[in-house]
Amino acid sequence: MITAIGDPANEANDPSRASVRPLPLSGLRVIEVGNLIAAPYAGMMLADMGAEVIKIEPPEGDLGRRFGPWQNGESVFFLSVNRGKQVEVVDFRSETGRRRARDLVEQADVLIHNLRAGAIERLGLGEAAVRVYNPTIVYGVVSAFGADGPYASRVGIDIVFQAESGMISITGTQGGPPSKTATTIGDYVAATNLVAGVCAALAEPGRPGRRVDVSLRDSLIAVQGGWNAIALHHDAQPSRIGTESIFTAPNQVFETADGLIALAIISDDHFDRLCSALNLPELAAKFPSNDARMTAVGELAEILAPRFSAQSTNHWLDVLADLPVGRVLTLPEVWEDPQVQHNEMVVEYDHPVAGPIRVIGSPIRMDGNPITSRRPPPTLG
To answer: CB count, 10 Å around CB of 317?
Structure first.
C-alpha cells in the first residue's frame, strides 16, 4: 500500500484531514536558492511543516534536474527532494530578474541557500544586501567547510566531507579497506541541522533576524559523537569493525539459514535472555559483563554464528522477540513493510509531467498525522 497524495486544493475536502490543525509554519514564506540536496531538502522539510516555499531557479534549472533516472523527461532525483514548493525562474543576468528576486526576498521570512562562497553575493542576495531591505529575515546558509576560516572558499561534495570528517576512516570491515556510507548523508544531516536552526530563530521573541550557518563537514563530525568520544579518550584512531559496535557486544549482523539479522545486546539482562533463548547458559557465566564480552567479541561471535545460521530469520525474530533484533531488508522490502506503510513513508504524487511518481514521505508526524506536503514537486517555470 502506497499513500496517494492528491491536489493540495482538495485537501480541505479530505475527511481524514478535516480536523487537522494548521501546521506550525503556515503563513511563513521561505525563499530557497539551492542546488542538488542540502538546501532543497531543507526547503522541502520547511514546506512539509506548512511554510510557503518559493524555489528560485535559473532558466537552466537546479543542477539536480540534470541527474537521471528520468520519468517522462523529469528527473526522479530532483522530484525526491523538492515536493511542496513553488518555482520562480529568475535570470540573474538581467536587471528585471534581479529586481524580481529582490521583491520575493523582501516579502520573505526566511532565505536559505547552499551556494559556494561568493556566488550568492554575485546574485545580489548576500546577507548584507538583503538586510538593507529585510532586516528581520532569518538567513540560513549551508556551506562546505564553514562560512569563514581557512577553508571557507574550498568546494566540496559528500564524498569529500565523508573523507575529511573521518567517517570513511571508520567505515568498513576489520582489516579491510575504508568505505563511504552509500547515501549522501552529509547533505541530509546538514539540511536537518539547518531546519533546526531556522526554526529556533523563528521562535525567538520579536524575531530580530538571525543568520544560521551549517557546515556539511561539521555536520558529519557531529553525528560521529560516540566514535569521537572513544578516539578522544584514547587519543588514537579506532579500528574499522564492520557491523559491530564499539560500545556493546554482541551487537552486529549475523547470517541466518535464509537471510540476515541485526542483533543488539546492550545490557547484561539482554545477554542473559539471549543465552537462555539459545540454550547456552554457560555463556552467561563465561561473559558476565559487557566489558568481558567486548574483550572477547570475536570469540563470542564465533560461538553465536553457527547457532543463528541453523534457523530461519523468522524463527529468530520470534524466539528473540523481546530483544532488539531486526531483519536486514532491501529497499523494496522496506517499502512493503507494514509499519512503513502505516507511517506513510512512501507516498505517490500525480505529477503534471512525470505522471504518478513515488517518493519518500516525511519522518515527522504532528498530532498523530503525517506532515508530508500535498503539493507535488514543481516543474521548471
So the answer is: 14
The count of other CB atoms within 10 Å of the CB of residue 358 is 17
Q: Dig out the grid coordinates for 245 from the structure.
A: 559496535
CB 379 within 8 A of CB 64: no
Mean pLDDT by 10 residues, the chain (381 residues): 54 46 94 96 98 97 94 95 96 96 98 94 96 97 96 95 97 93 96 98 94 98 95 94 94 98 96 95 94 95 96 97 97 96 94 94 93 92 73
Provide the grid cell at 121.
Answer: 553575493
Kindly state the DSSP code that residue 259 receives in the 8-state scheme.
S
Best CA proximity match to 377, nearest among 1, 21, 5:
5
| Lookup: cell for 282 | 554457560
Measured at the CA of 45, the angle between CA 26 and CA 349, to 5 degrees, comes to 90
Contact 40, 62 (CB under 8 A): yes
Please give the C-alpha separations between residue 214 and each of 31, 59, 371, in angstroms, as whole numbers: 17, 28, 24
Residue pair 262/325 in contact (Cβ under 8 Å)? The answer is: yes
User: Collapsing DSSP states into helix, strand and coil, what is residue 54?
Assistant: strand
Q: How many other CB atoms are there within 10 angstroms of residue 272's CB atom? A: 15
